[in-house]
Design a protein that fits this description.
single chain; hydrolase activity, acting on ester bonds; 3-stranded antiparallel beta sheet; globular; zinc; OB fold (Dihydrolipoamide Acetyltransferase, E2P); 8 helices; Aminopeptidase; zinc ion binding
């Protein structure tokens, strides 16, 4: 069966991963008036029949890391429901299964961590750079093709963690000088029963940061459970998120709900960067995310420099001593209280 026909029948993921199939661009309008455009392999743009009123431009991406399969299954389910007419979107959508080569290889990436390549055009030295360039073009095309205001642009980049975590689900808010931490975005986290949010304090060229920085999108990197193979994900534990995502897509506006104590919010205190091959942690490489270390605890070292936990203690997130030199080895964070105004800010 041809590529485009598979997608029309709901097999978005199957067609995307079958690299023996030649890609076909195409567009079609369904009986409901919903318009679909297949822009590139793994990228489906969806436009509702009625664009009047307060419409959002919502990017929902998965597969930036190829072995993080539960988000990919969620996007496949959403795409299938839309193309079969079971889900009628109220907003413009860009649905993404990002990196088919890495997905087929059951690995995070092929040559470079693609979620550090969203900073503008990359030299096309490998497939990760090529795909990152294509995705940046797709997002730019999507946002530029809308009349929605900047505040109505959203991007949820769906991931899952490679290690255990004291919070099974959490969201990372990228740092941007744009107002990209709206109260409605954080209210969505509570609706989705996400356990924690982490407020970044410096730019990092992730996919969600790209949309926040260059297009003012309300953006999160969503960490949804732990890495598993296709068919082995416990999607029931993500039911609340899946239901909230469906409501975000199909309802004109979500009700504003906020209870401050239902969401643990952390601020980044430091980013430890691996400068040399001598970089070491004092704890195991598979240490759970959000593990707390008391003040003064030796956390690691790098070429004679020692890192100790700061006053009040710190928790570690995304520890990875095996990253390339010059890349982030971990984030160190502390719990914080926030002001829930039009923008969510640290008290």
């Amino acid at each position: 069966m041809a590529f485009l026909q598979q997608v029309k029948e709901g097999k978005f993921l199957e067609a995307t991963l079958d690299l023996s199939l030649a890609f076909e661009r195409g567009e079609w309008t369904m009986a409901s008036g919903v318009h679909c455009q297949l822009l590139m392999r793994g990228v489906l743009q969806v436009t509702p029949a009625d664009l009047s009123g307060n419409k959002k431009d919502i990017v929902l991406s998965s597969g930036v890391h190829g072995d993080e399969t539960s988000p990919i299954e969620l996007i496949q389910g959403l795409a299938e429901g839309i193309v079969k007419g079971d889900i009628i979107p109220a907003h413009r959508l860009l649905l993404i299964i990002a990196h088919p080569e890495a997905i087929n290889a059951h690995t995070r990436f092929i040559d470079e961590n693609m979620n550090r390549l969203f900073k503008g055009h990359n030299e096309e030295r490998n497939v990760d750079c090529i795909v990152a360039n294509q995705l940046q073009k797709a997002v730019s095309f999507f946002y530029s093709g809308s009349k929605a205001s900047t505040k109505d642009r959203w991007h949820l980049d769906l991931h899952c963690a490679i290690r255990d975590s004291d919070h099974y689900t959490f969201a990372v808010s990228p740092h941007s000088d744009n107002p990209t931490r709206s109260n409605r975005l954080f209210a969505f986290l509570q609706r989705a029963k996400i356990e924690a949010a982490l407020l970044s304090n410096s730019p990092s060229p992730t996919f969600s940061w790209y949309s926040a920085e260059y297009f003012g999108a309300q953006a999160f990197t969503m960490e949804l459970g732990k890495v598993a193979k296709f068919g082995e994900n416990d999607l029931e534990r993500l039911n609340a998120f899946s239901a909230a995502m469906l409501s975000l897509v199909t309802e004109p506006e979500l009700a504003m709900e906020w209870e401050g104590d239902r969401l643990c919010v952390y601020k980044v205190t430091r980013t430890l960067v691996k400068h040399t091959d001598a970089f070491r942690f004092t704890f195991p490489a598979n240490q759970a995310n959000f593990t707390y270390f008391e003040q003064g605890k030796l956390l690691g070292s790098d070429e004679g420099v020692e890192y100790f936990s700061l006053e009040g203690g710190e928790s570690v997130v995304f520890p990875n001593p095996n990253v390339a030199r010059g890349q982030r080895a971990c984030l160190l964070v502390k719990k914080t209280e926030v002001r829930f105004g039009e923008q969510v800010t640290v008290k």
